Every structure is written in structure tokens, then in C-alpha cells.
Amino acid sequence: MGLMLLGYLSGSWLGALWVCRLAGVGDPRQQGSGNPGFSNVLRVHGRRLAAATLLLDAAKGMPALWLAMMLGMPPWAQGMVGLAVLLGHSFPPWHRFRGGKAVASAFGVLLVLTPGVALCCAALWALLAWRVRTAAVASLASAGVAPLASLWLAPDYVLVIVAFTALVLVRHLLNIRRLGSGDEHAL
Predict the structure, then answer these.
(1) Which of 11, 25, 26, 169 has its CA 20 to 30 A from that of 148?
(2) Are 116 and 129 in contact (CB under 8 A)?
């Protein structure tokens, strides 16, 4: 339970807000899509700040996950710590429970728990973002592929990754509606 709380609290620290504050640029929640995450920072403030946001959001939950692994926790318990990181990013108490969509944080969690799955999903995300120019499409497809990749690369983590995927899909409901109406933001 203590590691889940640590995961939640570390996840609730939104990298985009700190990166933009330190760079002296506007709050990403007030521009573009209004999302405090990598894709919006990329659209609004460029590659350099987006890369810093990605790095921070991916890395913030890693210490709690490494600790869970070092303590020999079973995969489902490690997954609960990882899910707490994603919930913290999505619903941070310091920002009225309005956070990001958890894609970069999910990448970081997967990178610790199942590196092969993380790299497959990241490669798919990059390819789709480059070809389709829509972060939501890339994120949804990558999240959808994660459980399938885990069947092959990390079968002990399949149920955990299904939970991660469900959270990412739920966090993207508005994007799915905008994709259907043709109003989704491009990269």
C-alpha cells in the first residue's frame, strides 16, 4: 500500500507544468488542447520542451517501480504500483484531479516492468505520429497493441497491461469523439 501511495504521489507531479514554468512559457493547460502532456507541449512550445516533458513524465514513477521489483513483489503488485503512477498523472490532487492522459507515464512504467513491450509501443507511436500527424491516433493504437505485445513478450504482465490500456483509452474518450467528428488536434 505504501508503494502505491508513493507511485500515486510521484505520478501526480506533472512534468509539463514544471518544464513550461522553468522555461518561462505559458501554462500548457491554457493553450492548444489544454492537456498537460507531451503532445500538447510539442504543439505549443516545440520539440525541446516536449522532450523534457516526455523524459520527466516517463521517469517520475520509476523509483517506486524499481523499489517494488527490488522487494520481489509479484507482477500484479508491481502493476498496482504502476497503475497508481498512471492514476496520479491522470488525477493529481494538486490540480483539482485534472491531469494528463498518462501515455508518457505509461511508457515509463512499461519501460521498467516490460521493456520489450514499451519499445514496441514507442516504435508504433512514433511511426503513427509521423505518418498520421495525430497524437491521439498514435496513443490509442499503441495502447491497444500493448496487451497483444505483452502476450508475446511479458505474459506475466498481461492483466496489468490491460488495466493500463483501459485507463489510457478512458482518458482519450474526448479525443475519440473529436477524431470521429474530424476536429482532433494535429501534431
Answers:
(1) 11
(2) no
Cα–Cα distance between 149 and 2 in angstroms, integer? Answer: 30
| Longest CA pairwise span in the chain (Å) | 48
Instruction: Provide the pLDDT for residue 178.
Output: 63
- Interhelix angle 135-153/115-132, rounded to 10 degrees, is 150
Question: Which residues neighbour 1 within 8 Å (Cβ) at sequence distance 6 or greater?
Answer: none
pLDDT (tens digit per residue) in 3-41: 999 999 999 999 999 999 999 998 899 988 888 898 889
Quote the CA–CA distance of 116 and 119 in Å, as a whole number: 5
pLDDT for the residue numbered 26: 84
- Which H helix or E strand runs over 41? helix 38-45
Q: What's at 63, amino acid-wise?
A: P
Model pLDDT, residue 1: 81
* Residue ranges in 60-100 assigned as alpha helix (H): 62-70, 75-90
The model's pTM? 0.90
Q: Is 91 left (phi over 0), alpha (psi -120 to 50) or beta?
A: beta
- How far is Cα 147 from Cα 127, in angstroms, rounded to an integer? 19
